[in-house]
Design a protein that fits this description.
The chain is an all-alpha fold. It is built from three helices and no strands. About 85% of the residues lie in helices and about 0% in strands.
Length: about 170
């Protein structure tokens, strides 16, 4: 028993059509699928940049609180504060703590330091959480990049095979 191919399978038009279809599929794959991955990667990068900016602001916040503490200690080292100076300093520290401090005096120094320490720790925790979030976003980005590279390679393979099929028609094989 001899096996023979159908006549349409041996015609050059079939190979041309198949080659064009594969090239069209490769073009769509490159444009739609790979661009979709790139859009997702761009969103992840934007989120990472936002997290980095927020981390920088939080570190600045920690540093500013430390400077306010140093100012407070140097002023209290000179003795009890004038009411106007104490009020102005309290307002500046309120900006960072979002809660009023007790009366600024040597007797309240422990409570003031505790409030400043607590806020600084909250800011450090937020920075740590943002760092961990960026690590996760970076992993997701790498995964998407790998998927995009795989899709590009598949599209390139489809395009090359499609061109080979078109060449079959041109060469009359």
């Amino acid at each position: 028993m001899q096996f023979s191919l159908p006549s349409w399978f041996r015609k050059a038009g079939f190979w041309l059509t198949l080659g064009l279809a594969m090239n069209l599929g490769a073009a769509l794959m490159s444009h739609v699928v790979v661009e979709s991955y790139q859009d997702q990667i761009n969103l992840l990068q934007h989120k990472q940049q936002q997290n980095n900016r927020l981390s920088q602001l939080r570190w600045q916040h920690v540093s500013d609180l430390e400077r306010k503490r140093e100012l407070l200690l140097s002023l209290l080292n000179q003795g009890d504060l004038d009411a106007k100076i104490a009020n102005a300093l309290n307002q500046q520290i309120y900006y960072y703590l979002r809660q009023p401090l007790p009366e600024i005096s040597l007797s309240q120094l422990t409570e003031i330091n505790a409030a400043l320490d607590q806020q600084q720790q909250q800011d450090r925790d937020k920075v740590n959480n943002l760092y961990l979030a960026n690590l996760e976003l970076n992993e997701q980005e790498q995964h998407l990049r790998q998927q995009a590279a795989t899709m590009k390679n598949i599209a390139l393979l489809l395009q090359m095979v499609g061109l080979a099929f078109i060449m079959v028609r041109e060469l009359g094989l």
